[in-house]
Design a protein that fits this description.
Blueprint: E1 2-6, H1 16-34, E2 40-44, E3 47-51, H2 55-71, E4 84-88, E5 98-99, E6 104-105
Antiparallel strand pairs: 1-3, 1-4, 2-3, 5-6
Helix pairs in contact: 1-2
Length: 106
C-alpha cells in the first residue's frame, strides 16, 4: 500500500510535527485495530509504504484510514484546511532479499 496526503506540501513548517504525530498515531492505532502485522513499513514525510501478506486486512486498513482522515476535525487541531489521503494498493508477489543500496535486509 502506498499512501500520501494531498496538500501536505502546503503545510507551514511549524505545522509538520503536529501533523506527523497525528498521522503516525492514526496509522499505528489502525494497524492494531485491524490486527495487521506489516512485513515492512516505512515513511518519508507524508508518504507511507506498507507491505503485508493479508491483502484483505490491508484493504480494510486503507479504507479505515481514508474514512478517519475524511472525518477528522482538522480545524479543531489547528489546521486551516482539510487533508485527504491518496492511497494505492498493489497485489502480487514480493521478493524478499538484501537491499544492496541501503545495506539492509528487505
Amino acid at each position: 500500500m502506498f499512501l500520501d496526503i494531498a496538500g501536505y506540501s502546503s503545510l507551514h513548517d511549524s505545522h509538520i510535527p503536529k501533523f506527523a504525530l497525528f498521522l503516525n498515531g492514526l496509522l499505528s492505532h489502525r494497524l492494531k485495530e485491524e490486527g495487521l502485522n506489516p512485513i515492512d513499513i516505512n515513511s518519508w514525510g507524508d508518504a507511507i509504504y506498507i507491505a503485508a501478506s493479508d491483502q484483505t486486512k490491508l484493504a480494510s486498513f486503507a479504507l479505515s484510514v481514508r474514512q478517519t482522515l475524511e472525518n477528522a476535525s482538522w480545524e479543531q487541531m489547528g489546521f486551516s484546511r482539510r487533508f485527504q489521503a491518496r492511497i494505492a494498493l498493489h497485489s502480487g508477489n514480493a521478493w524478499v532479499g538484501k537491499d544492496t543500496l541501503r545495506g539492509k535486509k528487505e
